[in-house]
Amino acid sequence: MSAGVRVLVVDDQPNIVDMLATVLRFHGFAVTTAGTAAEALRLARAESPHLVVLDVLLPDGDGFTLCRELRAAGHQVGIVFLTARDAPRDKIAGLTYGGDDYVTKPFSVDELVARVRAVLRRIRPGSHPDTGAVLRYADLELDEETCQARRGGRLLTLSPTEFKLLRYLMLNPGRVLSRTQIREAVWSYDFGGASNVVDTYIGYLRRKLDPGPPLIVTQRGFGYALRAGG
């Protein structure tokens, strides 16, 4: 589990920022986002992230310069460059300026998460970012280590997909999640299955959570939220 690990995602393409934030939150990271170098520098100073996923080409500068500024200011944050620039000299430059890894676009989401975890293991060897933890919301408990979930102490019989769906909702309590966000996080970014798969599994999960007050709320026209009290 990555609870308590803060990641700053810096990219000027909103679709990439959205997708990365969704995936990293699904894996338990606390995510902040920025679209410019200036905003990223401000957030890095204010929030002291453990790791930055950093685009090289930004509207007001470049990631290499930002990386150098962070290192000069004494920030020991992990830095994973994310860029379309795949020439060997660019990779060497990124690592020379203080980057910890370099991922080129287009990229695999699973590979990026693996790279992020690998960098965190190197820079935070005693933190065990992948150790399991128990998520709690209202009378729900979800144990990531044993892959078990309970409501009011009652063990829920969930399929792996239902477990992943409940986990994603519990990582984002109260937040309205669109069907696209849920589909990308639970079924992967490039899922090509039925368009109503989210609605179907929300229905399955609601039935598994009965009896008890409803916890999964439909926000008509937007998506779903885990919200106690409706």
Automatic annotation (TrEMBL):
<feature type="modified residue" description="4-aspartylphosphate">
    <location>
        <position position="55"/>
    </location>
</feature>
<keyword id="KW-0238">DNA-binding</keyword>
<dbReference type="InterPro" id="IPR001867">
    <property type="entry name" value="OmpR/PhoB-type_DNA-bd"/>
</dbReference>
<dbReference type="Pfam" id="PF00072">
    <property type="entry name" value="Response_reg"/>
</dbReference>
<dbReference type="InterPro" id="IPR039420">
    <property type="entry name" value="WalR-like"/>
</dbReference>
<feature type="DNA-binding region" description="OmpR/PhoB-type">
    <location>
        <begin position="132"/>
        <end position="228"/>
    </location>
</feature>
<protein>
    <submittedName>
        <fullName>Response regulator</fullName>
    </submittedName>
</protein>
<dbReference type="InterPro" id="IPR001789">
    <property type="entry name" value="Sig_transdc_resp-reg_receiver"/>
</dbReference>
<keyword id="KW-0597">Phosphoprotein</keyword>
<feature type="domain" description="OmpR/PhoB-type">
    <location>
        <begin position="132"/>
        <end position="228"/>
    </location>
</feature>
<feature type="domain" description="Response regulatory">
    <location>
        <begin position="6"/>
        <end position="120"/>
    </location>
</feature>
<dbReference type="InterPro" id="IPR011006">
    <property type="entry name" value="CheY-like_superfamily"/>
</dbReference>
<dbReference type="InterPro" id="IPR016032">
    <property type="entry name" value="Sig_transdc_resp-reg_C-effctor"/>
</dbReference>
<dbReference type="InterPro" id="IPR036388">
    <property type="entry name" value="WH-like_DNA-bd_sf"/>
</dbReference>
<dbReference type="Pfam" id="PF00486">
    <property type="entry name" value="Trans_reg_C"/>
</dbReference>
